[in-house]
């Protein structure tokens, strides 16, 4: 945990949540004391259908609301897509780009992820850029190489510690209950930090680096304690208020 960087625990609801799920966010917001909010930022990235409702219901709380993806264009003939401006208009303050499920399901390339990050900034949103190796890439000893390549290709010039957050999510750890060892997380996060400093200087030194992949209340303290881990990106455990608050409690 860095001395100077305020950590962020962000939930990613993925394609989960009807309006009946709004109570979960309210419960999470109610569970964040002002003391805890002084130590860690908290966010839920939600399906586009819920963003406005969530932003309204949590507006007086410390919980921030984000989107899960955006198109690179501001508007136009892109049926079914959502622009960063639309997310901002609905009350989002950030958006995830380049999640491995988007890279896999929709064939998103580093170049597209980079364009989406620039779109996020254009709309005044923070870009949460995701990178991470697959199981076969790790087994082949290529984890550092793959993550470094994604990082170089997905982060636009002009990234700052204010407009960009990086999330390392090993694909094989997502939704599986498997996590890398603390040593493996430390190695990747160190490599990311070095690459960011080499490219962005002080902005890279201050940028938040989240770990994601099967983060639960039971392993949060250990994972969040790893050097250069400045918070978490949480999938399944963000759908239950007690679990998400249990992860935030690692920073209490
Ligand atoms: O993909 C993730 C967050 O973006 C991680 O998902 P899980 O926490 O369910 O493994």
Element order: H for helix, E for strand: EHHEHEHEHHEHHEHHEHEH
Envelope shape: globular
Give the helix level as a range of percent.
40-55%
Poorly predicted regions? none
User: What is the number of strand segments?
Assistant: 8
Work out the helix count: 12
Query: How is the biggest beta sheet arranged?
Result: 8 strands, parallel, barrel
Average pLDDT rating: 97
Enzyme class: isomerase
Pfam family, one: TIM
Protein name: Triosephosphate isomerase
Keywords: Cytoplasm, Gluconeogenesis, Glycolysis, Isomerase
How are the secondary structure elements laid out?
Elements: E1 8-12, H1 22-30, H2 34-39, E2 41-45, H3 48-57, E3 63-67, H4 84-90, E4 94-97, H5 100-105, H6 110-122, E5 126-131, H7 135-139, H8 143-154, E6 164-168, H9 182-200, H10 202-206, E7 208-212, H11 217-224, E8 231-234, H12 241-248
Parallel strand pairs: 1-2, 1-8, 2-3, 3-4, 4-5, 5-6, 6-7, 7-8
1,3-dihydroxyacetonephosphate binds at residues 12, 99, 169, 174-175, 212-215, 233-237.
Pathway: Carbohydrate degradation; glycolysis; D-glyceraldehyde 3-phosphate from glycerone phosphate: step 1/1; Carbohydrate metabolism; erythritol degradation; Carbohydrate biosynthesis; gluconeogenesis
Subunit structure: Homodimer.
Family: Belongs to the triosephosphate isomerase family.
């Amino acid at each position: 945990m860095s001395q100077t960087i305020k950590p962020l625990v962000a939930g990613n609801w993925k394609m989960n949540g009807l309006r009946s799920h709004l109570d979960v966010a309210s419960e999470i917001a109610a569970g964040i004391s002002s003391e805890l909010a002084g130590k860690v930022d908290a966010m839920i990235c939600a399906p586009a259908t819920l963003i406005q409702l969530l932003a309204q219901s949590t507006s007086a709380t410390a919980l921030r609301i984000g989107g899960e993806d955006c198109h690179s264009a501001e508007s136009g003939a892109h049926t079914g897509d959502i622009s960063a401006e639309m997310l901002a208009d609905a009350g989002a303050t950030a958006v995830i780009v380049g999640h491995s499920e988007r890279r896999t399901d929709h064939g998103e390339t580093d170049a597209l992820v980079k364009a989406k990050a620039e779109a996020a900034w254009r709309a005044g949103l923070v870009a949460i850029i995701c990178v991470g190796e697959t199981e076969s890439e790790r087994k082949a000893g290529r984890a550092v190489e793959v993550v470094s390549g994604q990082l170089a290709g997905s982060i636009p010039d002009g990234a700052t510690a204010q407009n960009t957050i990086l999330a390392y999510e090993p694909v094989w750890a997502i939704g599986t209950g498997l996590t890398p060892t603390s040593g493996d997380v430390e190695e990747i996060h160190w490599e990311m930090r070095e690459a960011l400093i080499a490219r962005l200087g002080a902005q890279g030194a201050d940028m938040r680096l989240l770990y994601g992949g099967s983060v639960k209340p039971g392993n949060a303290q250990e994972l969040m304690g790893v050097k250069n881990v400045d918070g978490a990106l949480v999938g399944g455990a963000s759908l239950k208020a007690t679990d998400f608050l249990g992860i935030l409690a690692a920073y209490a």
